[in-house]
Design goal:
The complex is a heterodimer of chains A (332) and B (316). Chain A has 11 helices and 12 strands. Chain A is an alpha/beta fold and 332 residues long. Chain A has a domain of 79 residues. In chain A, strand 11 and strand 12 form a beta hairpin. In chain A, helix 4 crosses helix 5, helix 5 crosses helix 7 and helix 7 packs parallel to helix 8. The longest helix of chain A has 18 residues. The radius of gyration of chain A is 21 Å and the shape is globular. Chain A starts with 10 loop residues before the first strand and ends in a 13-residue tail after the last strand. Chain B has 316 residues and is an alpha/beta fold. Chain B has 11 helices and 12 strands. The longest helix of chain B is centred in the middle third of the chain and has 18 residues. In chain B, a hairpin with a 5-residue loop joins strand 11 and strand 12. In chain B, helix 5 packs across helix 6 and helix 6 runs parallel beside helix 7. Chain B has a single domain, classed as 3-Layer(aba) Sandwich (Rossmann fold), CATH 3.40.50.300. The chains are: A alpha/beta (332), B alpha/beta (316). The interface between A and B is large, with 46 and 46 residues.
């Protein structure tokens, strides 16, 4: 095994393209996506609806389904290529080595099974614990994620829990086997802001205590700012910019990132008018050749019609824009 | 200042649930002036949407009064409200479920106009004018809602709301389902229309940044009550109620990267069983014995601001 290869990233996605077969033909939804997550690192993946961020996470989990295909590139987890694994290998990896939590904990939990049973199931399946040992461990997990009176709540059904408490239960299930990678897809989007703060705090604490890596997928730049060590910005199936978090917010390079950050209304100040990104993101199957943002980009020029490769700028930064770094400033 | 276009006085609404009383809205007073936007913020269950539905006369209040343009409409039924509805319109969160999928955009927008005119040519002219006003092409009129994106559908919903030339627009989570880049377009559109048409707005949202962007005054609700109300700059820059401060601190924002304040503990108590004394005392880091026993009144706190707290965290 690659336990000794500490230098290698836990997750390395390299040039990944994914296509789905639809009634109207094959649609490419991810194009040339490259991402890395180091051990104990939180990578934030941010983008608007249709940017491909959730498909990326499903590809990592090996959950693309019968219609989805990795058409190019590879995903290496802990040194092992996903292409070398069959369904049984993927299943063993899921839940044990990597686990996922979703936006809506009510639809992720089975409503007719007691919460404790759903935690025990993971522990008995993947770790081979006895029922009694699994129960003890399950109660300890609920305690760890901050469910009050865990021994009493253990045999309750999901409907008896609030939205925030259900997400805590989902996190307990995800963390049950101490996975190396936690994938959190919009984990706080359905929650109120004070509860969101609690759940983000919990995810940060679990990372610190256990050294797990986290892939945090969200549309919310604020959530990313609070949590991520590094950030990947996605647009229309591509990663358009990757950077350490502080750098991305201090000096975003891709025009899309620049405009997106300015379009967010904040509680900190009031502006007369929010800068607007005109138009809409192109849908899969109708992306233009060349830069996919150019129809909406205020800096679009002739060279933008050429295919754009991700340019490595060093210091962990890369950007998919040939003009980035040589652009006029965006008016505030 | 001129007389308010809308005034609610000590409005309350109690729902009965299996023999228990759920207090959804309690003792809410607001005066909305011409051309003004009042933002209403709070978490799930704070009563903000119930308040909106009472103001719109979609549900009947249990207590208090609603004055529309100086007229007491609290006890008005549907028949008396119908001619008055044209002055007050609403835009809701999900434009897909609030637009009839089997009607053309032209007919959707013209529907409120039927109260005013039956002249086909006049209606078509007004529809064209409204589409232009909300930034949609004229040929949108002949298409169905499914042909449009979420942001465009919200523009259609806004055009419909404006067709009867209302004085008041109630926006309930009107931008909450939209992506950031589209949200910015709709927020700008709402602010722009307000200036051009002298609309008065009640803007309800859980998105505090969006509320600050469009509002002049902001009311913060917790468990059915207003806990703080005042000018937006005061509320956001010098919050006085501990809940207001906790709420603002909890919002993660790009320009506050790394700020990981200890989150407010616990969850909002059930409106079926509100705590004694100050309703916020179970989560308040500053609560004292007095807060657990005595219910603080909504007291004046500096110019144009009121706070429901014995121990505000800033000076007036």
């Amino acid at each position: 095994m690659s336990e000794d290869h500490v230098i290698e990233d836990l997750l390395a996605i390299d040039g990944l393209s994914v296509a789905f077969d639809t009634e109207t033909g094959r649609r490419e939804v991810l194009s040339d996506v490259s991402l890395n997550i180091g051990r104990g690192e939180i990578l934030g993946v941010v983008g608007e609806s249709g940017s491909g961020k959730s498909v990326t996470s499903l590809a990592v989990m090996g959950l693309l389904g019968a219609q989805g295909q990795m058409t190019r590139g590879d995903i290496r987890f802990n040194g092992v290529s996903q292409r070398s694994l069959d369904e049984a290998g993927l299943r063993a990896r899921r839940g044990h080595e990597m686990a996922m939590i979703f936006q809506e904990p009510m639809t992720s939990l089975n409503p007719i099974l007691r919460v404790g049973f759903q935690i025990e199931e993971v522990l008995t399946t993947h770790l081979g614990l006895s029922r009694a040992a699994a129960r003890e461990r399950g109660i300890a997990l609920l305690q760890e994620v901050g469910v009050p009176d865990p021994a009493q709540r253990y045999d309750d059904y999901p409907h008896a829990f609030s939205g925030g408490m259900r997400q805590r239960v989902m996190i307990a299930i995800a963390m049950a086997c101490e996975p190396r990678l936690l994938i959190a897809d919009e984990p706080t989007t359905a929650l109120d802001v004070t509860i969101q703060a609690q759940i983000l705090h919990l995810i940060g604490r679990l990372r610190a205590d256990r050294g797990s890596s986290v892939m945090l997928i969200t549309h919310d730049m604020g959530v990313i700012a609070r949590m991520a060590d590094r950030i990947a910005v996605m647009y229309a199936g591509e990663v358009v910019e990757t950077a350490p978090a502080a750098m991305l917010f201090a000096a975003p390079l891709h025009p899309y990132t620049q405009l997106l950050l300015k379009a967010i209304p904040t509680t900190r100040r009031k502006v007369a008018s929010l800068p607007v990104i005109a138009g809409q993101m192109p849908a899969p199957g109708s992306v233009p050749v060349g830069c996919r943002f150019r129809a909406r980009c205020p800096f679009a020029a002739e060279g933008c019609a050429e295919p754009q490769a991700a340019r490595d700028l060093g210091e962990g930064r890369s950007v998919r824009c040939w003009r980035a770094g040589n652009l006029p400033a965006v008016a505030a | 200042m001129s007389a308010p276009v809308l005034e609610v006085e000590r409005l309350g609404r109690v729902f009965s649930s299996r023999g228990r009383e759920l207090v959804a809205v309690d003792d809410v007073s607001l005066a909305l002036h011409e051309g003004e936007t009042i933002g209403i913020v709070g978490e799930s269950g704070c009563g903000k949407s119930t308040l909106a539905r009472m103001i719109l006369k979609l549900i009947q209040p249990s207590a208090g009064a609603i004055h529309l343009a100086g007229e007491d409409v609290t006890r008005f039924g549907e028949r008396e409200m119908r001619p008055r509805r044209r002055v007050m319109q609403a835009v809701f969160q999900d434009p897909m479920s609030s637009l009839n999928p089997r009607m053309r955009v032209r007919d959707i927008i013209a529907e409120p106009l039927r109260q005013i005119t039956r002249d086909r040519a006049r209606m078509n002219a007004r529809v064209a004018e409204l589409l232009d006003l909300v930034g949609l092409p004229a040929n949108a009129a002949d298409r169905y809602p499914h042909a449009f994106s979420g942001g465009q559908r919200q523009r259609i919903a806004i055009a419909r709301a404006l067709s009867s030339e209302p004085k008041i627009l109630i926006c309930d989570e009107a931008t909450s389902a939209l992506d950031v880049s589209v949200q910015a377009q709709i927020l700008n559109l709402i602010a722009d229309l307000q200036r051009r048409l002298s609309l008065s707005l009640i803007f309800i949202s859980h998105n505090l940044g969006a509320v600050r962007h469009v509002s002049q005054r902001v009311a913060v609700m917790y468990l059915g009550r207003i806990v703080e109300i005042g000018p937006e700059a005061e509320i956001f820059e010098r919050p006085a109620h501990p809940y207001t401060r906790a709420l603002i601190d909890a919002v993660p924002e790009p320009d506050r990267a790394g700020a990981d304040l200890p989150p407010l503990s616990g969850e909002v108590p059930s409106p079926l069983d509100r705590p004694t004394g100050c309703h916020f005392h179970t989560r308040c880091p500053l609560a004292t014995a007095r807060c657990r026993e005595e219910d603080p009144p909504l007291g004046t706190f500096g110019a144009g601001r009121s706070v429901r707290c014995f121990f505000p965290v800033t000076a007036p």
